[in-house]
Amino acid sequence: MISNLKFRSLVLGFIVLLYSCSSVQNPSSTNEKSEEFLINTIGFYNLENLFDTEDDPTKFDESSPIMEIAEGEREAVYKAKVTNMAKVIADLGSDVTGTAPALIGVCEVENFKVLQDVVNDPYLSNYNYGIIHYNSPDARSIDVALLYRKSIFRPIHSKAHELVLYSDTDRTKRRYTRDQLYVKGKLDGEEMHFIVNHWPSRRGGEKRSRPNRVNAAKLTKKIKDSIQTQDPYAKILIMGDFNDGPYNESIKEVLEAKEFSENLGIRGLYNPFEKLFKKGIGTIAWRDTWDLFDMILVSKPLIYTTDYSSYTLYQANIFNPYYLQNPKGRFKGYPFRSFADGGFTNGYSDHFPVYLYLIKKKSVDTLPSD
Questions:
Q1: Between vectors from CA 343 to CA 244 and to CA 55, what angle results, nearest 5°?
Q2: Could you give the domains of the chain?
Q3: Which of 24, 109, 274, 331 pairs as cysteine with 259 (C-beta 3.0–4.6 A)?
Q4: Which of 85, 88, 103 is nearest to 41 (CA)?
Q5: Residue 336 near residue 324 (C-beta atoms within 8 A)
Q6: Signal sequence: where (predicted)?
Q7: 363 falls in which pLDDT band (50, 70, 90)?
């Protein structure tokens, strides 16, 4: 939620917005009944190799970029990296809400400690973020997590779902990858479900690695279906770096995510990012081509209505301000990654973050007093 002062400044804007959708009276009408709205940002961000500076003998963390930097410089680089990540999270959606996201899923994080350092950074420390994280068996020692503002979201249940994969050359050999994180909780008292993903990479080529992401999608679908068996009207947000685009088999056929919300079945998924991709907007760039691997999919009960009595999807966006773009050279305009050529660039990530706004009417008993 946002402060009373900032919230009041948004009220008129949302009255205009909703009037354009024919859901409130004309603001110029003498019979106008002013309505106020809650608005929260939900985001996802690949933090690009957020490792600490310690060599954990139980993990393959020495492969992290920060361990390639001279030992005497690692601590300063780590602190700069943490601050850069915290700044982006704080800025996400703030041009509308005036505050940091209510929840944000993250990936490419080594452990709980690096997440603590991010949420305790001055950019975020005032927001009192909680952390939901499980250590996964990933070969690169990277995990997914969900950060949430304790004043807005109350977690009820969480679970790490293991994705079991095998080598494509030896079916008896496990290929260890990231878990999928499921979190159930209440956003301002309203029940929500979140699934945070970082699906297997395209190493070895898209075609060769495709079965791994198809299997990841099947696990995500299994989690989603289990939720909807208990409650067909559950509000579900599936977020992540899928290493696939809106057009790939995993998203389009296994999860059956739709570009358009019209005629969507009660258990269906809507992908608000597919339209952005078709406009040429992406979250990653490779060989002068944009792609969109980072998305947030939503279940039908979150799709736009004119009621607003409960949280509803308003808008989805890719966060790509100038400071997150590579400022010069061959890769100008690409996401400004943190590490390149064995060194620290003082950049951010090789992915742009994604986010969406959820809005609902503010009940009379919670309206701020003058």
A1: 85
A2: 4-366 (3.60.10.10)
A3: 274
A4: 103
A5: yes
A6: 1-24
A7: confident
Residue 83, beta-bridge partner list: none
Helix pair 74-91, 112-119: axis angle to 10 deg: 60
Q: Which of 317, 307, 315, 316 is nearest to 360 (CA)?
A: 307
Determine the residue type at 124: L
Contacts made by residues 221-230, CB under 8 angstroms, sequence distance 24+? 221/254, 221/255, 223/161, 223/180, 223/182, 223/195, 224/195, 224/255, 224/269, 224/299, 225/267, 227/184, 227/193, 228/267, 228/299
Longest dimension (CA), the chain: 74
What are the structure tokens assigned to 288, written together?
């002068």
For the record, the structure tokens of 282 come out as 């992406």
Select from 150, 127, 130 the least CA-distant residue to 3.
127
In this structure, are strands 236-241 and 190-198 parallel, antiparallel, or unpaired? parallel
Which pLDDT tens digit goes with each residue over 190-234? 999 999 999 999 988 999 999 999 999 999 999 999 999 999 999
Tell me the C-alpha distance between 151 and 185, whole Å: 13
For residues 45 and 118, the answer to whether their CB atoms sit within 8 Å is no
Residue appearing with tokens 């979150």: 302
Q: From 65, 8, 42, 75, select the one nearest 273 (Cα to Cα).
A: 42
- Decide the pairing of beta strands 190-198 and 165-166: unpaired
Residue type, 343: G
Beta partners for residue 44, in sequence order: 105, 354
Of residues 305 and 133, more confidence is placed in 133
